[in-house]
Amino acid sequence: MMNKTYETLKYDIKNRVITIWLNRPQVHNAFNDTMLAELADILEVVDRSDDIRVVIFTGEGKSFSAGADLNWMKKMIDYTYEENLKDAVMISDVFYRIYTLSKPVIAAVNGATIGGGMGFVGAADIVIASENARFSLSEVRIGVVPACISPYLMKRVGEGVLKELFITGMRFAADKALDIKLINYKVGHEQLLEFAMEKAKELCLCGPNAMAVCKQLFVEVPGMDLMTAYNHTADVIAKMRISAEAQEGMKAFLEKRAPAWQEK
Question: Any idea which residues carry the catalytic annotation?
């Protein structure tokens, strides 16, 4: 069981689900190098844990995340290319870890989600937004671009709608986010975490290794040509069927009982 403490994050583990709060409410949960390092650390711990099945990200206070911290960005004005690259890699690393995490990730968006904060929306597997949520890819308004988070948003949303969001920096509400399939669900603000936890409980009914392999398919298959995918996916299912988890799952189904991974 985890017993770490963090400066910019807080977390709670209950029923095999870890809820992680971005915890810098005084700056609308904007991230800096400390938060990025702590996010990378907690994601590594979660990825290795057999006790945690699902991750929920949300924000402390009224905002989800305002993206990069302005005080952190001030330092970058005089950075060299090499120094900027080092910081950018920290951002890329966190969202890559979220997208490729072996556990399902739910983003419970409780409020404003601006700039780099949209990376959580793109990289999460399921996005649930409060009716109070507001979204913006605002980078162009200050002459920069949402580069590090773009691969995940492009996977989630088609170019036709995403390009307008990139080049205008427009702000929009949860209804539009739902309409363009940027989010999966919009719920009442007071029901947000309860709804996210119910969704997490549904995920805990599924085979943990099966969910991890499902996520890996989204990483691997889109870059394959059809014949490579033909062979790869046949190999994946053949190996899965003889795995201990699948054997247990199929036996449990035939014997009309719950599979072992559902036991607490």
Answer: 139
